[in-house]
What we know:
This protein is α+β, with helices and mostly antiparallel strands. Helices cover 37% and strands 23% of the residues. The protein has a four-stranded mixed β-sheet, covered by helices on one side. A hairpin with a 4-residue loop joins strand 3 and strand 4. The protein starts with a helix and ends in a 9-residue tail after the last helix. The relative contact order is 0.24.
Amino acid sequence: xxxxxxxxxxxxxxxxxxxxxxxxxxxxxxxxxxxxxxxxxxxxxxxxxxxxxxxxxxxxxxxxxxxxxxxxxxxxxxxxxxxxxxxxxxxxxxxxxxxxxxxxxxxxxxxx
Length: 112
């Protein structure tokens, strides 16, 4: 599997951010909505973070290629487009924040 090619087809541009989080979700997934909201909160205070949301049901070929078995599934991409992490199921808010902060510079409010 060439994950970079899959993300490119989806229009993901990791070179534009310190960390790009690609979230695969489905319309009726409650944990997906909660994770998306948390990512949006983080994005506001961390300018180096970009969150891309993908409707899994509309991108079944990509879901299969990436081996996604549940939603939400998140891929964490560095500026070079390398997958630096992956999570399946809704991450706890503290875990998501810690993962983002490990890769994103310029956090609002100074020290971590």
